[in-house]
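dude i think i finally got it to work??
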Amino acid sequence: MEIAGLVVGVQPLFQSTREYCRPYLTDKQPEFFVCVAGEDLIFQQMLLEQEAVEEGLKIRKFTEPFLERATIQRKVADELIKRNTLMLHGSTVAVDGRAYLFTAPCGTGKSTHTRLWRELFGDRAIMVNDDMPFLQITSNGVLAYGSPWSGKHGLATNICVPLQGICFLSRGKENVISRAEPGSLAVQLHRQAHIPLQEPLTEKALALVQTLAKTVPLWQMQCNTQPESAQVAYRAMGCEQD
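look at this
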């Protein structure tokens, strides 16, 4: 399959993994190979349990097909770090060919917010990815890529679009958005990014987070679940067309 410009060869343990990744399958020659064994599934379960503890979530026992997909995700994300491409937890919607990424801890309402965007803009809007998009940092800006790892709703498209901005969401009674200084959100951005476990990829990923913060406009928004919240975010992030 081809993810964010990387052609990956995978021999899955489960047929469902192939179906899950079907929109990204390609006939191109693989540049990178992912092998999944039983011990990988055990290790991935352990990582997910650690993540749940850190985020204060309930520990769950995942199915083996789920763990295989998560293992492939992690290994592909590690490899893409070498290509200046970072996986970031967030819901990303594109309008008129430009992408807007909304990030926050689980359960904040990212998917609800991008759904309001799709309802507001209709055919002008398309979901890039509802959970784990890839962001490629280039000399001409940042590109957002869809990926198979799209959350419980499975909302994703195999496309690449320029990233217009990143917005950190929190719940609020009113819809209030403001521009943020890169340094003020460095910790939050780091928490939502995929950081590999092994050096020197850890250093490389942290450097990419810093570059991302300086390259793309960052925003903070308190929002409710009313349609107006999408309008407020769109106007503030500089997307209004003449």
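Helices lie at 15-20, 38-55, 64-81, 110-121, 186-192, 201-215, 228-236.
im so relieved honestly
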